[in-house]
Amino acid sequence: MISRRFWRLEMITALIMASILGYSFLISKPRVDFSTEVKPLLNRKCLSCHGGVRQRSGYSLLFREEALGKGESGRPAIVPGDPEGSELIRRLTASDPEERMPYHESPLAKEEVELLRRWVEEGASWGDNWSYTPIREIPPPTIRGWLWGLIPSVHSRWILNDVDRFVAAKQIEHGLEPSPEADKTALVRRLSLDLTGLPSSPALLQSFLQDNSPQAYERLVDRLMASPAFGERWTAMWLDIARYADTKGYERDDTRNIWRYRDWLIKAFNRDMPYDSFLVAQIAGDMLPKATDEQFIATAFHRNTMANDEGGTDNEEFRTAAVIDRVNTTWEGILGTTFACVQCHSHPYDPFRHQEYYQFMAFLNDTRDEDSYAEYPLLHEYKDVDSVRFQTLKRWLATQTSSEEAARVVQFLRTRQPAINSLRADAFVNSELSDSKWLVMRRESSSRLARVDLTGRSKLLIRYETKRDDGTLTFRIDSLQGPAIARVSLPETSQGFQHHEVSLSQTNGVHDVYIQYQSPSLTNPNENGIRFDWFHFYPGFPGKAQPGFDTAWATYWNLLNSRTVEQTPVMIQNPAEMHRPTHVFVKGSWLVPGEQVTADVPASLPPLPKGAPKDRFGLALWLTDPQNPLTARTYVNRIWEQLFGVGLSETLEDLGTQGAPPTHPELLDYLSWHFMHRDGWSLKKLLRRIVLSATYRQDARVPEEALQKDPANRWLARGARVRLTAEQVRDQALAISGLLSTKMYGKSVMPYQPEGIWLSPYNGRSWLKSAGEDQHRRAIYTFWKRTGPYPSAIAFDGTAREVCLSRRIRTNTPLQALTTLNDPVYLEAARHLIYRCQSQTGKRPDKVIETTYRAATGYGLTEQRRKALDRLFRSALAQFQQHPEKACGMIGLQDEHNEPVTAALVVVGNAILNLDEVLNKN
Amino acid sequence: MHSEKRLQREALLRSSEWTTRRHFLKECRAGLGMMGLGSLLGSCDWLGSKANPSAGMATFDPVNPMAPRIPHFTPKAKSVIYLHMAGAPSQLELFDYKPELQKLDGQECPESFLQGKKFAFIRGVPKLLGTQASFRQHGESGLWISDLLPHFQTISDEVTVVKTVMTDQFNHGPAQLLMHCGSPRLGRPSMGSWVTYGLGSENGNLPGFIVLTSGGKNPDAGKSVWGSGFLPSVYQGVHCRSEGEPVLFLQDPEGMDRSLRKASIDAINEVNRVTYEEMGDPETLSRISQYEMAFKMQIAVPEVMNIHDEPAYIHELYGADPSVSSLANNILLSRKLVEKGVRFVQIYDWGWDTHGTGPDGALDIGLVNKCRKVDRAMTALILDLKQRGLLDDTLVVWGGEFGRTPMQENREGKQNPFRGRDHHSDAFCMWMAGGGIKKGFSYGQTDEIGYHAVEGKVSVYDIQATILNQLGFDHEKLTYEFQGRPFRLTDVHGTVIRDILA
């Protein structure tokens, strides 16, 4: 043993000597690193004039080939290996102020010039920002302790898993020591809030306090992850990314029925759907073979874009805005990159070119949605007897028609696609788009549907509305004088839009279809006769000669007209004949289309995986390809932020060169690599790695010294102390008072809200208070109106969800205090909290206060706290005894609780719900 | 001179409030939290790394984001009252007198005006519609002002009317967003947010940016027009409601009087101080002062929002009636608010959308009524500010989101039942007064029927740049880093309208 130790000592001594010698004698200065040394300098000093936006004197430093080129001066700016021959270096030190760069600004420091000189000398190599480099498997650093590991150090003793090794290395570097593990009560509450968004139940706390086995903590983690509340908590996070709302936004801000997507998220998180599948479903679920309803609903992710119903708006303009939002959301939410700047010009700092924005947009642009009022395309889910009918019909189709025909009918019944929305009509004669939403026609009118493929289409299904019983339609091709392919009299409709099927004479090829309308009973030339919703040209319902056709046809027609169907906006790809080309928008303006582009990913990132199609599905594969350097990093960084309050890179929305570099880049890569390659993109496994670490379990107390050395806790030498989110503040109050409903899923609900929050013009909707337990559902089920979001959610930094929001900036304002002090929701919670504690502990006020405090924090009262709360109780009691009518006000009802002691306790309960330790995760 | 004094005072305030974080913490512990509206602890890095140094502004204390700050140069105006008539008032009935249009009344609109144009509702060939009001010249300036605004006519020598404002949006929601947030889409901070971000607040007991609405509805673009967009939420406008509580949840619960609320906040803060002793988290101290602030706001806001105690002659002057909520009350309130040091008061009055589809939207009925409601009050505002010596450093701005067509609207090709005009984005009128703006001045010329601006075209961004300029900002330098680039109110546009500056 001894000799072995000595051997080790000798070896190490030799190694140290060698490295010191090597460092001072053998190795000169290390090579200049482009990403960490040169690029930040260029960004700071040069790129505002010589970057993506401005290229003064025709020179840009954004891409290497540009930087090596010649500006207007004609001299090469950078000659790799030859600083003296490089115009760039000369200009930095030129004596003529008209020549010296940065132009008319203070010159670069000597060291900065020297750095650039050396960089050019070494070949002016270009490098990538950390986030664009491949994610590698990084071995955790060894934290040995003293005397080559013989004596354990504070850090080596502290370590529980690999996460801690990375963290300890940085703590050592910054002269910090880790904090001890938080007490069990704090751990349960922290874990419970982090994993389920709710405080722990008293029962869970008790069982953990009593469980002294080494596996107790791990068991607690597993129990919390298995709770259905887990999915609700992580859905709350994703809804900000997905900019989920229950209304469409803009002026009318009418209701949107998209809650099925929220429910899909909850289920996906609870099932621990791997993050790659989770993304594929949301980006391109509709394009998966035999896509299920669930997979369609997942694509509602990108149907959460705003839609404008204001009269007179251009549908194309707002569709374009929605597609641009999809591009920006994909980049910001999934790839942690600010791509939005590239909409107007090449990225000023990051390696993305203007054209690449539109190439990327082409992935997301070829979908059926057109800013229509009904938000087509919609997934139709049949309910009750209709769902049985649909199954029966599917069976008949499978046996009696070709698989292609069957698929077409099923797709149409599920999505009503492909249909031509009437808002695509043009060439109006005495007809127009009513309220810019639907084609309306008047007496002797005509209009046109441009470029319709009629090959093999023998039927036309029309969805329309008319109050006339003598209207006739003639469909002609190529011109108003062209051959008629159908003539039809349309019956009067009774309740809104109805369907009618028209036979078409056989026509081949693509034609403009002209619609002529006539109704003799229309005497006023200005009066509308008919309104169209959409047109569906198709080969007709199949299997005419087969047995059971009549029943099948009747079922088909019934399903088409079903009024109980659940409809959710989803993504559906355009069929080839409706393909939508994508153009570059010159300077970002959709009105100035430039060159046409095809779908592709930016050249500075890995290409599409081999064999991936150049469409939305291929995009989904690219996003989830382990070669993609951004997807896993962005997600892991976000999950870290959810637990610690700050990401490893603080700027979740921007991991590019302008974002904050990560404090622990190796840890971020370690976690990202394991997330993909070891844990199969499992969120629960990722969370386990993090919450089982000693880093996570640290006490959140801030030692005076640590506050000096690391005020923002970036080096993680203490536990995170973070204010609860808007959702958690509400859910917690309801949970500890016993009011919280555990009901999951379903349409969004409307709990109490003050009068006058909803005042959208031209929108008859109003806030109708939900009944029963729907008053007390978790916050993610609260109806989210974009122009009038739920007030307490906004007070606590929720947003209107107009666009993707990567992170909420936490504020601390008096409006928050007013909310939790005075919002009737929190007063109601205080009352029920007190009643509950009274029923548990009897009427002795001091006991009730103790129990209430314990219910809220898990701890017993310290002496000072007891005194403060007791003083409050006594002054409240004195008041209420003197003025019993005030007690009644506090209780709110003339019931058995209406007496001064209980009322005074409610005042204390209200105070407890406002304590810093209750509003924070400790 | 006035503004110089104020500037000095601000500098003094700043230096006295320039305390290190440590010092501030001590003060809090002593229960003396001299706090602004909110604190942004935990986002120190956000300010340190992201605040644009080129903005040339004093780095402000993240603990106190509402601390008064010094702008880029000596400001002419200290605060802004912005009266927005949502729905877009007709310039042709109010400020842009067009006798030629009168002569062409009833004639078909020339084809040349319609080519390549898109309207919200007009279809086919509409008819020209002569002005529905009589006009006269007033004051030494000889400004043409409609008889629909008889009170305003008397102060023509106090204001500058800009006749040639242009926008590129012809729908309410997007146009209001463009006007107030510099972009027709949602997600950008509003002007008031930019201003409070740049200047902070002078009154620690009141929000720096207050919004008042009337007309029964919120503006079409909703709360986004006073949202903080990507700026921290402390800078969003606080919507003071004219009915019920002026600020949500301001009122203590029933049965809890002020002394009990005081006792309750004292208890909360006492326990929080214990928590601070135990945990050492500075954010706890910030929460303590926020609760103190909340308590102060509960008194200060209802007090300032109460117009009952204004003397009868002031009620008379504005046409205000405290018993019902009204635009006039809000305008009177706006004076009280700037008097108390509120930076930016944004007033929205809904119901100016005169299409002629019903009597409320008729130029000869609805518009007349709306004018009656605003005329006396906005005139009173100028006179009242002036008599209090506040007009010089209060910039008053009045306008809509666009103008209205010289043609009568024919919705879906049919003549509307009442006289009305469609949305028009190519030329409309706004007026400004006080805050270093010329007195009795008319800027810009439209063509003979008020369709196009022919001289002195002004964009929405120019209006924004001018307002910021009067507050002491270079609009190109008041920026905030977001999504990888510095954003500003005026996007990449905007020129200060120097010609209207006094």
What does this structure look like?
Among the domains of chain A are: 34-127, no CATH class; 234-376 and 578-623, no CATH class; 423-542, Jelly Rolls (Sandwich), CATH 2.60.120; 725-795 and 812-922, no CATH class. Helices cover 41% and strands 10% of the residues of chain A. Chain A contains 34 helices and 15 strands. Chain A is globular and about 95 Å long. Chain B is of the alpha/beta class. Helix content of chain B is 33%, strand content 16%. Chain B has 15 helices and 17 strands. Chain B has helices at 2-17, 21-29, 44-50, 91-94, 99-103, 111-114, 150-153, 172-181, 191-199, 258-279, 282-305, 312-318, 327-339, 366-387, 460-470; strands at residues 79-86, 135-138, 143-146, 159-166, 209-214, 238-240, 344-350, 394-399, 403-408, 421-424, 428-433, 441-443, 445-446, 453-455, 458-459, 479-482, 485-488. In chain B, strands 1, 4, 5, 6, 7, 8, 11, 12 and 15 form a nine-stranded mixed β-sheet that branches. The longest helix of chain B has 24 residues, at 282-305. Chain B is globular and about 80 Å long. Chain B starts with a helix and ends in a 14-residue tail after the last strand. The interface between A and B is large, with 113 and 94 residues.
